[in-house]
Queue: 3 jobs
Job 1
Amino acid sequence: MIYDELVGIVGARHVAQAPEVLEAYSKDMSFSHPVMPDCVVRPRNARDVQKIVQLACETRTPLTPVSSGSPHFRGDTVPEAGGAVVIDLSGMKKIIRVDRPNRVAMCEPGVTFAELIAATDAEGLRLNAPLAPRQSKSVVGSLLEREPVLIPRYHWDISDPLACVEIVFGTGDVFRTGSAAGPGTIEEQWRAGSAQRASSGPSQASFHRIIQGAQGTMGVVTWASVACEVRPRIEESFLVGSRDLERMTELLHWLVKLRLVNECLLLNRANVAALLAEKWPDSCLEAKESLPPWVLLFCTAGYDYLPEERLDYQIKDIRDVCRRVGVDPVPVLSGIPASLFLDVVRRPSAEPYWKLRERGGCHDIFFLTVYDKLPGLMELMAGLAGDAGYAATEMGVYLQPIVQGTSCHCEFNIYYDLRDAVESERVRELDRKAMGKLAAAGAFFSRPYGESARTMMNRDAATARALTKIKAVFDPNNIMNPGKLCF
Amino acid sequence: MALADCKRTMEMCCRCSCCKFIPLERIEGYRYADVCPSVARYNLHAYSGGGRIGMAVGMLEHRFEYSDSFLKVLYDCQMCGGCDVSCKYMMDMEVLDPINEMRITCVESGRSLPVLDRLRDNLRAKGVMVGTAAENRWAEGLDVPDVEEKKTKVVYHAGCRTRADQEQWNAARATLALLKKAGVDVGIARGELCCGGRAYEMGYKEDFLKAAERKTDQLKRSGAEVVVTGCADCFQALSVLYDRFGVKGGVEVLHTTEYFNRLIKEGKIRPSKRLEVKVVYHDPCHLGRLGEPYIHWDGREIPGHIRLFDPPKELRRGGRGVYDPPREILTSIPGVKLLEMGRRREYAWCCGAGGGVAESNPDFAAWTANERIEEAFSTGAEALVTACPGCERAFRSSARKHGSSMKVFDIAEVLGKAI
Amino acid sequence: MALEKGVYRAFEDIVGPDNISEEPAILDAYAWTGIVLKARKSLAPDTNEDECGRFALRCEAVVLPGRTEEVQATVRLCNNHGLKFKAFSTGWIGGNMVWEPGVIQIDLRRMNRILEINEKNMYAVIEPYVIGAQLQAELMKIGLNCNITGGGSQTSALPIAAHWGTGHTAHSTSNGERSLLALEWVTPQGDVVRTGSLGSTGEWFCGDGPGPSLRGVVRGSITPFSGMGVYTKAATKIYHWPGPATFPIEGASPSYRPSEIPPRFIIRYFSFPTMESRAEAMRQISESEIAFELMGFPIAMIASNMATSNQEERELFARLSKEVKGPGFIVIINGSSDREFAYRTKVLKAIIDSTGGTSLPAMEDPAIGGAQMWRFIRITASIRETFRATGDHSGVFPGHNEFVPVVRLARDIAKVKRELQKKDLILDDGAEAFPWTEEYGNLAHAEVLYRFSANPASLDGVKHLNEESVKLAVNERAGVPFFVTGDELHDIFGPAASNYHVWLRRIKKAFDPNGAADSGSYITARDE
């Protein structure tokens, strides 16, 4: 038990052992089995982090990094091993830099979307952010999880918008990825005009890719630089409603391919209602019934260069595309203004978190796939939900083109009453069954969490074996979140 | 020019692999991007233009013996010049010449292919590559003067391949018929000597030079002002090689396609019969890219960090060969729809017969020809028309071997049917 | 060291007798690099070759596998017999170089298929010997395009073949590292790993996961040059192409030109009075997202590209140099609709007017500009700019970072180039850096290219330039440059850059415990 040493690093105020605190970190909203950590340490800065990791290394103490505030949903922040120390970085809240000319911001892990959006807004920049993240969600955490983002046009690579990170590997060594690696300290690089914007490298490996998706199993990230985009001068958004999923994905394909739109996402009516419920004067149920089954939201924008003319031509071209596809984009759909909806999806969610508003609980099943597979996967999931006694119409669906349209993030949001043990168990069973069946039908669980993670990892033994080699390089003592993924 | 004289040009090779493909600007799809049959078939880099250049430098540096395997690589090459054209799209260097010098060096070192030696021996003994000079059965029954007995303005040179291959006689006969119809004062040499061109490409330079002198004498004796031939190899030898080596004599050299086109434009022959057929035209290497006029240059390289010459040196890059006359002939025939293959003109795919390959590696020659036939089919053409007996033999043999329905014609045959 | 007969036969059993050779002449064809090795420090560890030698070492044998299974078997055989392997696709500029005995060259030429073009999901799956021109030509037929490496479309279309994979259209089509989706990879020990969705579902759309991404080890901003095994198939992102299915080219080599510039396409070369004004114009064009291609070609390179011979190049360079005001760039604009094109050209004009750019008249000529445009889209004539002068060429590649530091580093390296030009050690073609932007200006890349005639004095000069470049790169904090490969350079830059070399060595050791994958242009797993 390294409590005393931890106190020596960060001070007693930043090390917690109170049972209620440990209990809070022992579980989350996933179905992960609760495991009580030994203590929770809150580093103040990167130096603290390094010392903590070095200590954990010497003492073979498992470390579970956490950067977002609660509630947590995926199980990655719940220790798998006994005797673990949770290293909670949510208190590291420095926004280190916002660099308008290079379109990049740099922040510590505790910075939330609301905080960073405010900072980037002030500099005329904006983030390519995920869908309505919760208020407590860490930007760095989201980037490390490879969460899908709303603007596929600026999603050149799946690692975007992450640029560089500073990490303390499981060996206790500090490392900086991409152009941040050096030569020079970060401050020297700034003086030289560098901005830690290039993610690949340094040299013949792209270390940031090994760190993303790792669920904290390689090390602890102490800051990240995030690519930003120029904030538009003017925007106009539209909604398209339809019963026809294939028509919707056809539209998505063309809008993204022709780079006509910025934010661009497809939701089923359950999710539209869930997102907007607080904004409605009427109930969520009424909202669902008035909406078409599928709602596509997209936004087009003009920037600093003849913005009105840009907007004008883009809207006309979009209308041409919509005519070819056979849909009609409108600024208001079923009484919902597209602009209002846009504002909701790209800002952090109002409290309570939109996924929890309706029933108090939500379990997400998400994967990557291609457009052609979606109808089959939808049908499969609806069937599985039905078999589990869950009404498919109650389930939220979120489809997000990513990496400039090369794949699609598909997310099923299963809303349920957390307090209802029977329902909870049903959802858990649905999760277990669904992941296996969906994977067999071609869903790619690129970010597997929780109970099924190991199963998903082991579907590809060769990859798992290769990852184990990488793990042995960066965390030879297996102190970093052991038990997660295939480690 | 000896191989050592090529050192500087060979050192220009940067191993970019462009010599394996048609000029990049002309690639229109995945298929039919290759220009070099040799590397396309055998895949080892050594089989490419750049690969052979590397070996050539190795020869100069005495890095290896001239083994049988090495000779195989060297001679599994149709000497088509596709690599040369593709390289010269970008570079100021020679590719085909050094490869030819490699063969010459091997021959001079006593290392050559026995099957090709037999052709050389026949040339030495009988003045032609195959058969005898006196064999002119293709002309039996034709009322055409022997230029050894009666001088004519134009002499038609059939070439060894035509004379020795009965399936090519139609083309020769059609040629004479067309020339006579046009009122051309044409004769043939009943003891026609070989031009020697193929010997040069096989590496028998001295034999070529001797054959060239003999041929030039024969042409001089004929008193003809123009020699016209339907063989692309012969055309290239008579017009380019002879010029290069200073044995040309004063006679004008024309390919039959050039001459027919001239006659059509002068109204002396009129294609009037309708032929409803979709055809593609295959550009013979020696009529096209290798048939470009020779450019003499005598000067020096200016030392410096960019290769410049005094006086400025113009390279033969393949674009000025005979490409349009055959096409104009075909499009002048009513009903003929001329389609184009993806690889054409200076970047045409070889028929497979050249460089001695038809003799030394008939399977490879057939494979090369078959690739071309498939390409012809891909256009929707019903017939493949060309202007060289070597190409025609290659295509006909390959079509037969592979059971292809593609019809193969010499352009003289097609034109003859339209008169 | 000749292979033991039994070992040779074992390789022969894998690929067939037609697809292997140990014939010295054939191996010399492979050893021929065509470039003066002393000038290419980063690609060419010290050899005993003569000063101007262009031959690398002969390998023990060259094998040409036709399928992944044959690659795997070959790699395993190398491991079993203590041999190394060097795999390559087109094998240009060091891609296939061998530096020590006991290496088997794996020529991937027979693996040359386009396996899939997925229009809806914007990716293509290819084998290593599909060249950029082939892939682009097929894609253009269906309104799509791909990124092509700047060296030319005769190189592999694989986004992980060699070097960095940035090219002329990176401004809108990104670069190799970021275009890679799923990958089939034979590791140095002979395991077949299929990354991302390929391993889990058999589909090619994603190269990352599950969990951390193996894309992190298979390449970085530059590739491992076979040091991490063999890449046998890969999916690459593809992009919308608003142009014609085939470019309407006519003419004869080397002077091809389009019969017309396709509708909604324009090419211009603008020069600027200062580097700053050019940088500002590039920044604005980037942020306005109007360009298909944006490359800061020095006028010397434009002249080289246009000219069909060295003679013509010198004349053209002399003439065009007088027509430019200073540093410049090529910009190609296109549009998916008339409206889009109209908007983009209007914005371009406004930007150029505001930054003081001057249009080069030659590029406004449809015949000249059109020909240039196609050469810059198909990337056909980079070799005119580099190797045509003397066959000897090299360059310093500062790398990949933000515009300001990378251009400054290139500018400072160019000053050293100028010194060499004054001493007549390299060709005097101006001493400008050559920068361009990627992903609408998110990233930038720059190069300093030079041409020379190989002689001892010039090689000493080039050596000096390379050494100064290393010092400048370390001092100027512009990231780890692209010329850093091999133990020696990694040992210089690593300590200055988070000791990445230590991690790279550990990765190498983890995946290649037997040291079977040739590491001459990567890093060896020697003890720390």
Job 2
Amino acid sequence: MSILNIENLVAGYGAQDVLFNISVSIGKGEIIAVIGPNGAGKTTLLKVISGIIRPKSGDIFYKGESLLGRTPQYITGRGISWVPQDENVFPSMTVRENLAMGAYLLTEDYRDRIDEVCTIFPQLKNRMGQIAGSLSGGQRQMLAVARGLMIHPELLLLDEPTSGLAPNLVQMMLQKIKEITTIMNNSVLFVTQTLDAVRLSARGYLLAAGMIKYEDSTEIFLSNREVKELYFGG
Amino acid sequence: MEAEAQVADLLISGIIYGSIITLGAIGLTLMSDILNFFNFAYGDFFTLAAFCTMAFLNILPDMGTFAHLSFGWSMLIAALLSIVITVLAMLLFDFLFFKRLRKLGVTSLFMALASLGSSFIIRAAVYIIWGPKVRYYSSAIQISRKLPLGIRMKPDETVILVSVLVLVILVFYFLKRTKMGMAMRSLSDNKMLAQASGVETDRVIMWTWIVSGVLAGVGGIFYGIQVQLSPTMGWDFLIALFVAVILGGVGSFWGALIGGMTIGISEELITGLIQNMTNAMAIQANISVYKPAIAFILVVVILLLKPYGLLGRKE
């Protein structure tokens, strides 16, 4: 059963269209990867789903409900959590405050939720009072994903979660993403340029120049020579 | 000893003046950080609060004064009513002008120009309603009282200082410990992420106006206690507020506090000492008119060393 269905989506910035008739679907509990070159529209796709940008045409159905015209607050409240690639924490606020902001729409006490999220990211436990802007790149990325998990999301949108990380941290982050879906049984749509990240997913989409060029199960996706040569260096 | 007493008196004056600047600087820096423009009308809301207080004082019956103070219950009631009116006036201006401009997506420069227009509107309204004459809350002369450590303060000044301290603590608590305060800080820190976290921008903006309005209301009333009421009192005060915000760093609560106190103390101390020197040399000069120059010199020196202000952050 699909948790998210994007149908013939057209979106952009002002007069400039960036996405052209995009159709993507994500099943419950699935990990889906979207790969593509810089400027393909990957981040724009995530922004449209999270309500930051309004589409010009097409529709987005989340658990059967159209998200057209909905505010980012409403969409987050329905269980979709977006973790941006850049500027993905509140740099002047502490780690604890960042996590509290992740739980802004939560009705229950967020402190229990912090404990749950810290079982996935124990490295954050001893840094609760630290200002987020002073964290290392890897710690900041962990905090960004942890913040995204605070709302009990059913769908997690991750924009290049391993970007800028050292190779050992890349593996750690990918392991964490796998852990998240196992423990929390949520769906993940992540944008990536990392081969290992694609291997984590059940299906992949190739996005280029704002259009879906290719989609298939990961196994077949990765055996496609053009995909491998163009995006993963053979 | 006399010289030491003079310096102590100037220091106290500076602290009182600085505390009033601090209230305004906190309000102004909040608005600058969250609403993303310098509100040139902010000083005139001080004027509005001061004149509304005077108007209510004229209407309310004389309920006497508190011990040693120049005001009593009628002043407290007048002050509360004026603060409410100041907040409502700021919300009204937002509804009529600033909200519409935000929806159109205009730049910060246009918002600042709109605030400049708003300041003319408020000042004109004060002129029309109350006229250009300077006024006072009370013609009674207060005598300074001796406090420990040789400090001399007027009783009203003590109330101002304590009230500002309480208000600053309350605002800090609000920003640091309440959910709305955290939402306000998150919006100024990372607007897109705040929206994606569920923060409603319109509600945060409303609360920004409310908090800034309360600070303007209280600041205007205290400023009216210290100086003559005139239609340009707030506009003239705006320079000190801007300089305090820039000195402390735009968007920084503690920067506004440090900036406000620094400007207040330095203006009073430096001009006071120069005035004493000129008096001793029998030179006729009113040095107090040069107070804004002190503030500007100070901010230029600080910005040369710290371009984002003492506690400001690089955008």
Job 3
Amino acid sequence: MMKKDYSILIGGEAGQGSRKAGLMIAKLFSELGYNIFIYDDYQSLIRGGHSFSHIRVSDKKVLSHREKIDFLLALDKNTVDKHKKDLDKEGIIIYNSDEISLRNKNAVGIEMDKIVEEFKGTSIMGNTALMAGFAKIIGIDWKIIEKLFKKEFKKYQKINLKIARKSFDSLENIIKVKRINKKGSILLTGNEAISLGAVKAGLDFYFAYPMTPASGILHYLAKHKKEFNVAVSQLENEVGIVNAALGAAYAGSRTMVGTSGGGFALMTEGLSLAAQSEIPLVIVESQRMSPGSGVATYNGQGDLLFALTAGHGDILRFVIAPGDAEESFYWSGKILNLSWKYQTPSILLVDKEVSESTFSFDEKVLEKVKYEKPLFWNKKGSYSRYKNTKKGISPLAFPGEKDQVIKSNSYEHDELGITVEDEKSVEKMQKKRLRKFEEMKKEVDKLEAVKIFGNKNSQKAIIAWGSTKGPAKEIAEKLGIKMIYPIVLQPFPEKQMRDALKGVKKIALIETNGTGQMGEVLARFGVKIDKKILKYNARPFLPEEIGRELSKF
Amino acid sequence: MPDKKIKLDIYSKNTWCPGCSNFGILAVLKNVISSLIKDGVKKENIVLVSGIGCSSKIIDYINLNSFSSLHGRPVVSAEGIKLGNPDLKVIVCAGDGGTYNEGISHLIHAAKRNIDITVLIHNNRNFALTTSQFTAVSPKGFKGRSTPEGSVEEPFNPLELMLSSNASFIARGYAFKLNHLGRLIKEGINHKGFSFIDILQPCISFFDETDSYKERIYEVEEDNLDSKKQALKKIEKWDYESEKSKIPIGIFYKEKRSAYEEALLGKLNPSKRNRKINLKKIID
């Protein structure tokens, strides 16, 4: 059988353009009908160091990279040294023969420096020579490459094409990668999908302060704000961001903010204000590894318990953790709608692996999100921002409503929004919000809050959440065991989880954190974990790693 | 006098100390708002924003749209409101503690970006509602409950800070000079861009400077208002530390500059945009 699942690793120093080249290689394969997943690994520096993209292409949907590499594309020597141990037996190394010489029989050198020099290019154009050379080796038509280069390089297009052609012509074809489909789907990072989902659900205003790995949302929306007709603003700090977002929502704009753990810590006072003032607020929290500044450009799932409990006072918030780009799109839109329906803070909890990885994205998913109208005031009688209703949800109105006053209050308040302190009034408002919490719980029952993958009848189950979905699902399907995957994490989908666990005798928990935080959440609902499979070196799980752990299970 | 038809009174119970100078600011603010409405500003488009502290209770005492923010955050909440719907007139009432201590970064950045909001600081030069501790504008030696032997810090001059932060309207008023204060506030609100008015507001319970202010306050000559040099000269007449020097009140600086919300949003009003979008078309 013809192989249809390849892994390509392209690496170099920061500034050599390995990420851009990786994305172009992915587009090349996408053009041939392959499904794509790209894992991008880079350090917190501008020049030097080591960055690489691991591009997996397959005829099946893939959400994770693997251990073994079929093609190692090295922009520098360091890339060869670091990754040749992961090269498959049949794997091929493609390298810069002007920098190093390799004696391996399956290594192909390209005179990258010489070719670039010949056309008076700049050193970053070495990646053009590398990409074109690789395309020749795997038997891709020049026409396809030319088309892609013309699309991707608006600047210095001629030079890049000359370099590409020279490199292409200098090499021999070794294997033939087959076209497997007419055309692949579009490629999106998790951050791009989050942005698009929110825009589709009626996002009006995105506020953010830069923080990896959430900055991609800020960059993407800032770049496309005219096409989307949305507003984007970067303010002085995360405290400012969250409070400005609440102000804008009070004024009638659907807002979202994005950050990572450290910025989220600063936003918690705003989360609490949102709960008390009943103002819709969506916070995208894209986690990275470790407390403090942690490992800034690497992955982790250590903020789960923080997201579930952040903010002073009694607060129920939606916490939703999508695990790939399609889910990110869907749940980003959904959480914005839910936040407005219930006038509540909510957190879209992702991580570096979801935010910055690139996925094939099925365009049909675009139709699954729409703007859902929240409960607006019917314009009869006089308006009270905190009207004491049966379900605890008070109709919305915004400043500008003739003959009405809209009073939002951070203090405990009466129905109009005037500050109160007496026990009767305080309890009345608390009860109103508690009734709303009950409605939020009922809402979760209506959502697909827990998914099941793999062998549904297996007595052995693994539980994974967020970005761990990709590698866990792949191995669960391969080994024929059940995988339970909660997506809505607050209000916790108790009933759906109970149903999912029916018939399960043994449970293994898979998380990229050091303490097994999901295990603590499950324990609250009486679910006992038999084995914890944890990884906390700031790198995502690979399916093979989980497989080895499960072989002892 | 406020126009009865405009209905700015409300049922809430006022909890300021009897005789508090905030009553003066409340009366002035109601007057100014009545007059703005008579000038054609829609009542429903005015929003008051406050934080926490005696000053911030004011929003409960006026029948207007209001947003009670957190301690130190009303300036940035107000920015959000203005950005969310640029048609609104947004006025912040906040204290010196919240604005000059907890939320100082927001004040500086709001001035820098020249967003069209008006910030009124009820400056009683201490944290009063928490039973008196020193703030950034309490004089050195201030004896509050956290500094029984006197604060060891010197105050900063908020007007000087605002000038160096590029605020486009800088003024100081006095809570017991009602007509003068009313003129400042109205001019501040009508100023397109960031307007800042520090209002000396004696705290009759914990830091009563009424007698001292009465002797020292004088109205500054409002000339060469677009000169930073001149403004600084006038602002430096009093440093919030000296108990003897004269205290100028009035407008110190005023310049025309494009407002942040216009520069950022152009014609877009985020709260009134069309939310229908064909993503497929854009992505392809």
